[in-house]
């Protein structure tokens, strides 16, 4: 059998998603996630203008060969747009292969290594009272791990902190529909460094030592600031400190490592194993944060995680709402199968999204399972998708209080 057609579907059930649909000559359909937050149409064009016609007539079973064809073939390699496009093709082909085998994908990846995958939720609040309320809510739902983000005195709205009041928990949306240009936020690292350790102290006091606490630095610290911060928060036993420094410089984390035993996670902006080469071989991180959707798909992610395993480094796959349910399912099948699983990020999608993408994964007391439907276990309802037109949305820009554009 061969690939007969590759279609790109753009839908916006509350936020934008780009999905690749591959149909084989015998009518089997595979789905792949190609969503790149705030730059969605670039990947859609890459796929429909440059990739789709080259897939037609290819043997859908040759996943590795197709991956290499798309990666090495065009000469221009890597980058989030290219790697999201390759990821979508790769996921769709794995979906087809597993459907043909009549098995859930995790079986083809070696079978389950655990009963379910521990997930962490996003708890945030503009102040400690709101944050505490959010953490309690997640504990009631059975979560054993939470990422905590909170407002910083002297600053307004901060990325990663929900502006909604207490009690609203699943409302945090990273990309805003803000017209023709991104919204802007302000930042001050000094205020943050002085404020945040006290928040972790309060959390430990209120919630005890069992709760797994994660925190995202969102690339905002310099290497020496991150080293100080990681050292300051050591007493609060974080599960991880994520993206403490800007992602481009792998050697920056040497400095952080030299000063602290706080576990480090990085990688949601990475798209290739080469972004990790120094980090992994020098054991500068503890968790790989890539999204399957942005790192070339299941084929590439499995190799990256196997490479990490040799160095005792675990997975912490990116799973925000800007990864579609298809990309999330791909992560869950990998999580269930690999030995060096660490934790999985889980930001549940809204109801509109789940009407468009019908999922079979299940949540039970802090653990997700991808389900046992053949393939990835997610089907896109094209009629429902057509009802949600693409709406331009941007991630916000970050500036220091004096107006300087800052990392985030
Ligand atoms: C965040 C994301 O999930 C995370 O850790 O950093 O919200 C991330 O900023 C978005 O996925 C960006 O698109
Ligand atoms: Mg992050």
CATH topology grouping of the largest domain: TIM Barrel
CATH architecture of the largest domain: Alpha-Beta Barrel
Overall 3D form: globular
What summary fits the major beta sheet? 10 strands, mixed
Q: What portion of residues belong to β-strands?
A: 15-25%
Helix content: 25-40%
What gyration radius follows from the Cα positions, in whole Å? Answer: 21 Å
In total, how many beta strands?
17
- CATH hierarchy class name of the largest domain: Alpha Beta
| Count of DSSP-assigned helices | 13
As for the number of domains, it is 2
Q: What are the secondary-structure elements, in order, as H or E?
A: EEEHHHHEHEEHEHEHEHEHEHEHEEEEHE
Full CATH superfamily name of the largest domain: Enolase-like C-terminal domain
Domain Mandelate racemase/muconate lactonizing enzyme C-terminal: 128-263
Keywords: Lyase
Pfam families: MR_MLE_C, MR_MLE_N
EC number: 4.2.1.8
Describe this structure in words.
Residues 128-263 form the Mandelate racemase/muconate lactonizing enzyme C-terminal domain. It comes from Microbacterium murale. Pfam families: MR_MLE_C, MR_MLE_N. This is Mannonate dehydratase. This protein has 408 residues and is an alpha/beta fold. It folds into 2 domains: 3-103, Enolase-like, N-terminal domain (Enolase-like, domain 1), CATH 3.30.390.10; 108-375, TIM Barrel, CATH 3.20.20. It has 13 helices and 17 strands. Strands 4, 5, 7, 8, 9, 10, 11, 12, 14 and 15 form a 10-stranded mixed β-sheet that branches. A hairpin with a 4-residue loop joins strand 2 and strand 3. The longest helix is centred in the first third of the chain and has 22 residues, at 80-101. The mean pLDDT is 95. It binds D-mannonic acid and magnesium ion. Magnesium ion is lined by residues 216, 242-243, 268.
């Amino acid at each position: 059998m061969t690939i007969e057609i590759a279609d790109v579907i753009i839908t916006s059930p509350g936020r934008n998603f780009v999905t690749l649909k591959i149909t084989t000559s015998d009518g089997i359909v595979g789905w792949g996630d190609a969503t790149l937050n705030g730059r969605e149409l670039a990947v859609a064009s890459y796929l429909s203008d440059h990739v789709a016609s080259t897939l037609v007539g290819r043997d859908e079973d040759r996943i590795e060969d197709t991956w290499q064809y798309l990666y090495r073939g065009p000469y221009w390699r890597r980058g989030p747009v290219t790697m999201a496009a390759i990821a979508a093709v790769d996921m769709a082909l794995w979906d087809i292969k597993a459907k043909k085998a009549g098995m859930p994908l995790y079986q083809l990846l070696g079978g389950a290594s655990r009963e379910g995958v521990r997930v962490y939720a996003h708890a945030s609040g503009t102040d400690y009272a709101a944050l505490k309320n959010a953490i309690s809510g997640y504990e009631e739902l059975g979560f054993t791990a939470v990422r905590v983000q909170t407002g910083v005195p002297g600053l307004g709205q901060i990325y990663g902190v929900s502006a909604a009041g207490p009690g609203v928990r699943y409302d945090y949306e990273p990309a805003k529909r803000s017209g023709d240009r991104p919204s802007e936020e302000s930042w001050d690292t000094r205020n943050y460094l002085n404020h945040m350790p006290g928040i972790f102290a309060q959390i430990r006091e209120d919630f005890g030592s069992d709760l797994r606490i994660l925190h995202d630095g969102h690339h905002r610290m310099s290497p020496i600031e991150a080293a100080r911060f990681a050292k300051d928060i050591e007493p609060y036993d974080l599960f991880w400190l994520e993206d403490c420094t800007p992602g481009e410089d792998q050697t920056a984390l040497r400095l952080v490592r030299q000063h602290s035993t706080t576990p480090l996670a990085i990688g949601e902006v990475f798209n290739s194993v080469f972004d990790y080469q120094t980090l992994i071989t020098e054991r500068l991180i503890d968790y790989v944060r890539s999204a399957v959707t942005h790192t070339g798909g299941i084929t590439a992610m499995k190799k990256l995680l196997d490479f990490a395993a040799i160095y005792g480094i675990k997975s912490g796959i990116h799973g925000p709402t800007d990864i579609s349910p298809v990309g999330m399912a791909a992560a869950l099948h990998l999580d269930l199968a690999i030995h060096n699983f660490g934790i999985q990020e889980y930001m549940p999608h809204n109801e509109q999204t789940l009407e468009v993408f019908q999922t079979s994964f299940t949540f039970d007391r802090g653990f997700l399972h991808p389900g046992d439907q053949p393939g990835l276990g997610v089907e896109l309802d094209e009629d429902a998708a057509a009802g949600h037109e693409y709406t331009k949305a941007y991630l916000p820009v970050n500036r220091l209080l004096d107006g300087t554009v800052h990392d985030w």
